[in-house]
Amino acid sequence: MSTELSKGANAPVPTAELTVEVSWQAAPGMDLDASALLLTEAGKVRSDDDFIFYNQPASADGTVRHAGSLPGGGDRLVVDAGRLPAAIDRVAFTASIHTPGRTFAEVNGARIAVLQNGAPVVSYAIGGLSTETALVFGELYRRQGAWKFRAVGQGYSSGLKGIATEFGISVDDEPAPPAVDMHKQRAVDLRKKVESSSPVLLKKFDAAQVSLEKKGLLSERAEVLLVLDVSGSSRSLFRSGAYQELIDRFVAAALLFDDNGTLDTWLFDHRLHEAESITMANREGWTDRQLQRKDIWGMTEYAQPIEKIADGLVRGAKMPTYVAFITDGANHDKRATTQALKRASSLPAFFQFMAIGKEDDFPFLQRLDELTGREIDNAGFFALSDPKGISDDEFYDKVMIEFPDWLAAARRAGILAP
Question: What architecture is the 196-412 domain classified under in CATH?
């Protein structure tokens, strides 16, 4: 049952993933935005990276995310309280007016609510506003290893600059959000597209963006290819939703890497099969459509898709190719696969092998990851027992762990253009 607080009051909240809704009903022509600030015990941000808003939608570790607009006015933010860094003592939730000459006197229904799994936990309605142009609605804070929410309702007549001064954010003389580069702006624009076209992918998109930023890859462009095992044993992965989970994660990553937002796909058993490319528009039901096919479900061989991809590559290309190679079984063509991967090592493609099962069940892929005789190391490997049992953050960190090193090596060797 939700607790309604008055100004200055507090209440406990779960140490879990929480959704914070900062809402309002503004007069026509007013532009407002909500934000979250990660604060230390001293009440300051560690850097501008701790200011989460529409143009910087996630903290560096992904524990706080801007999750889009609310119908009627307001923004939704997500806080994973159980994973917040130990250095963070509070998370403050604010809103500021960007329209000159307007104040919160023209705003009705200012309110903040904390929810867990869609159910309200605690809320606070703010009234009596007048000349304020920025407002701290409330804050989550630590107490003896647990988390509480406090109803704050503190206003500033100096807008965003007042909040910046209070919490240590760097801003220009004119109140404006911290500047971001063109690559972050592109990510913001893509996020809006995902939110409107395929909101089920939004959490995955945010996690992918955080992972790419951490690894310095947000400015990279790459063609993303999905190579999917459709041997007989893979039927259960189609039916269980495991393949759909992986497809959704790679579609989200492909949006950030590839301007056309398309995940080109090859299917393989002991043969190579064409498949429709996957996009936000057709991802739903894609696995069901493959289940209806009669020309797949054979044995497992890896070499043909590697050879096919290599045939389409040119040394010295400007854009790399990232190949997500997913299998659930050992192959019957080890020698041919080894030769194919060696040949591909002089071409601009990185192969991320991902096995569904226990790592020890795939000794060949482990050896392939350390294969000698290649111009550069062009492959990575990891195994997942359950693709749905790993968080989006962990998944993206795994699939991107070796790609940055390959990019650098490929450019040094002239395999990729500088």
Answer: 3-Layer(aba) Sandwich (3.40)
φ and ψ of 352, to 5 deg: -100, 100
pLDDT digits (tens, 9 = 90+) for 357-367: 999 999 999 99
Burial of 242: CB neighbours in 10 Å, binned 0-12, 13-18, 19+: buried
The bridge status of strand 272-274 relative to strand 264-268 is: antiparallel
Spatial distance between the Cα atoms of 131 and 62, rounded to a whole number of angstroms? 35
Q: By 3-state DSSP, what share of the chain in percent is helix, strand and coil, each rounded to 5?
A: 30, 30, 40
CATH 2.60.60.30 residue window(s) in the chain: 3-180
> Does this model's pTM top 0.70?
no
Name the E strands within 70-145: 74-80, 90-97, 107-116, 119-125, 134-143
Q: Would you state the structure tokens that stand for residue 85, as one six-digit string?
A: 């860094």
Average pLDDT of the residues of the chain: 91
Q: What is the pLDDT of residue 171?
A: 59
Radius of gyration of the chain (CA): 24
Portions of the chain given CATH number 3.40.50.410: 196-412
Q: What topology is assigned to 3-180 in CATH?
A: Lipoxygenase-1 (2.60.60)
Tokens read off for 214 = 């951490």
DSSP designation for 46: S
Name the strand (E) or helix (H) holding 225. Answer: strand 223-229
